[in-house]
């Protein structure tokens, strides 16, 4: 057995190893569904699941042809359907997010690296096509200052026509370990309207650091736990 | 940007929550013999008549539908336990009792497909309904205390999957508004609001309709 010092990580490793790929996919699906922004594509996991699905499809086909017990075959088919549902749903949520935030993702290198090869190809085509379409149909008819698809007008520097995921959203999450002293790094990603209109009168109370007990559900602002979600320390529900 | 909260993303449908609950393990007693099943989601069986074994809920229901097994209701679904929980649930205004994360879905699946396997069915069913109602009432009343949450985390101990899912849209947006408007006891200056706010919202609306 492992020594006390690295017991924690060995436990993690064993817990991870005892999970089937389908369970991992389910968790990835849940995370992707609950997170406001696009997460890292689980390329290795998806590859494994695809292979397993294909293998199972062949097995089920063999069973059907050889007149195997129909009950067993139908159970295998159900198992297959459930896994395929997860996979499809996972890919679809990602496509939904990509379509919604395409210009934002396309312009942000960090987000772009989270996409799979196919998704990158898709977003590229999407951006180009939409831009060409809008330019041809509307924008080219407008005065010069209003021709950008990113800005309402060139006077304004902000890319205020680009839809961005709202990282302020509250998400429901749970942690496996105790996480103490969680605090937002101030304006790490540049709040669009950081200066609130109420600033003049009194100041917004400074966000207090908070802690998270293991296995307790919390409503938390996504931004505050973003990095833990990325590290896999927090599960979204 | 208010307009961007799309109801389709970051929300689970009732069916999806049930889908997740269907992976919870449950004990069945088969009445037939079947080879072990080596499935994508795990290995189950072998199955022998009268030998109890653990399978996921969906598999149990599939077998039950074909009359191949009986399902043993989980221990927490006993009348004694549920009576206790209901009492405790009614006694304390703040705390939620410990119940399985998917208790709503599991019990409703069992009522739908395996009602014959549940002892004291009517009692159990009405107890669970009462517990559910009591808890939802408590969730609603505890929402009032959310507003003094200064930090960006609100603990919802022992809330179950379905309960979370039901309150998520409302609580999420409410908390976000609290956050946006700073401390709740702060009375916003209406003039400053009308001077700057409309422009911002106007932009957002135009952005939405443009999408």
Automatic annotation (TrEMBL), chain A:
Any Pfam family: SLD5_C
Annotated stretches, region: Disordered: 186-205
A GO cellular component annotation in the UniProt record: GINS complex
Coiled coil ranges: 39-66
Alphabetical UniProt keywords: Coiled coil, DNA replication, Nucleus
The keyword Coiled coil belongs to this UniProt entry's keyword annotation: yes
Location of the protein in the cell: Nucleus
Biological process terms in GO annotation: DNA-templated DNA replication; double-strand break repair via break-induced replication
Domain GINS subunit: residue ranges: 68-134
InterPro entries with a match to the protein in the record: GINS_A, GINS_bundle-like_dom_sf, GINS_Sld5, SLD5_C, Sld5_GINS_A
Main location: nucleus
SUPFAM superfamilies: GINS helical bundle-like (SSF158573), PriA/YqbF domain (SSF160059)
CDD domains: GINS_A_Sld5
Positions of the DNA replication complex GINS protein SLD5 C-terminal domain: 208-236
Summary of the function given for this chain in its UniProt record: The GINS complex plays an essential role in the initiation of DNA replication.
Family under the similarity heading: Belongs to the GINS4/SLD5 family.
Name of the molecule in the record: DNA replication complex GINS protein SLD5
Organism of provenance: Prunus armeniaca
Automatic annotation (TrEMBL), chain B:
UniProt keyword terms in alphabetical order: DNA replication, Nucleus
Signal peptide as annotated in the record: none
GO biological process, one term: DNA replication
Record's GO cellular component terms: GINS complex
Region of interest (Disordered), ranges: 188-211
InterPro entries xref list: GINS_A, GINS_bundle-like_dom_sf, GINS_Psf2, PSF2_N
Ranges where the GINS subunit domain occurs: 76-171
Main location: nucleus
Domain of life: Eukaryota
Record localization: Nucleus
Residue ranges of domain DNA replication complex GINS protein PSF2 N-terminal in the record: 15-71
Coiled coil in keyword set: no
Gene3D superfamilies: 1.20.58.1020, 3.40.5.50
UniProt-listed Pfam families: PSF2_N, Sld5
Keyword Nucleus: yes
Stretches with biased composition (Polar residues): 200-211
Family: Belongs to the GINS2/PSF2 family.
Quaternary structure and interacting proteins, as annotated: Component of the GINS complex.
Name this protein carries in UniProt: DNA replication complex GINS protein PSF2
């Amino acid at each position: 057995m492992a020594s006390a010092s690295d017991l924690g990580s060995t436990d993690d490793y064993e817990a991870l190893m005892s999970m089937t790929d389908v369970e991992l996919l389910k968790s990835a699906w849940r995370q992707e569904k609950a997170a406001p922004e696009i997460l890292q594509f689980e390329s290795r996991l998806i590859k494994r699941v695809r292979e397993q699905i294909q293998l199972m499809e062949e097995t089920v086909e063999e069973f059907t042809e050889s007149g195997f017990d129909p009950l067993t075959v139908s159970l295998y088919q159900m198992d297959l359907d459930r896994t395929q549902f997860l996979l499809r749903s996972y890919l679809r949520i990602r496509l939904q997010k990509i379509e919604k935030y395409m210009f934002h993702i396309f312009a942000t290198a960090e987000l772009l690296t989270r996409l799979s090869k196919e998704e990158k190809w898709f977003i590229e085509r999407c951006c180009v096509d939409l831009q060409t379409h809008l330019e041809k149909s509307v924008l080219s008819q407008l005065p010069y200052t209003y021709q950008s698809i990113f800005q309402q007008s060139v006077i304004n520097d902000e890319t205020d026509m680009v839809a961005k995921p709202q990282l302020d959203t509250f998400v429901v999450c749970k942690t496996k370990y105790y996480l103490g002293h969680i605090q937002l790094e101030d304006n790490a990603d540049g709040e669009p309207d950081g200066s609130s209109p109420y600033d003049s009168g009194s100041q917004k109370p400074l966000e207090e650091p908070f802690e998270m007990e293991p296995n307790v559900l919390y409503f938390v602002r996504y931004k505050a736990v973003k990095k833990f979600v990325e590290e896999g320390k927090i599960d979204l529900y | 940007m208010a307009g961007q909260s799309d109801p389709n993303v970051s929300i689970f449908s009732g069916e999806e929550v049930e889908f997740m609950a269907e992976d919870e393990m449950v004990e069945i007693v088969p009445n037939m013999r079947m080879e072990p099943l080596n499935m994508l989601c795990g290995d189950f069986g072998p199955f022998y008549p009268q030998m109890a074994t653990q399978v996921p809920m969906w598999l149990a229901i599939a077998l039950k539908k074909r009359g191949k097994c009986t399902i043993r209701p989980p221990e927490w679904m006993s009348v004694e336990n549920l009576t206790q929980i209901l009492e405790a649930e009614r006694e304390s205004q703040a705390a939620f009792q410990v119940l399985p994360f998917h208790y709503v879905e599991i019990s409703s699946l069992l009522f739908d497909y395996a009602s014959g396997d549940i002892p004291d069915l009517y009692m159990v069913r009405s107890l669970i309904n009462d517990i559910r109602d009591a808890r939802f009432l408590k969730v609603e009343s505890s929402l009032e205390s959310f507003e003094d949450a200064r930090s960006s985390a609100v603990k919802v101990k022992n809330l179950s999957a379905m309960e979370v899912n039901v309150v998520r849209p409302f609580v999420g947006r409410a908390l976000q508004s609290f956050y946006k408007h700073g401390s709740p006891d702060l009375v916003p200056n209406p003039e400053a609001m009308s001077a700057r706010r409309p422009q911002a919202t106007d932009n957002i609306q135009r952005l939405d309709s443009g999408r």
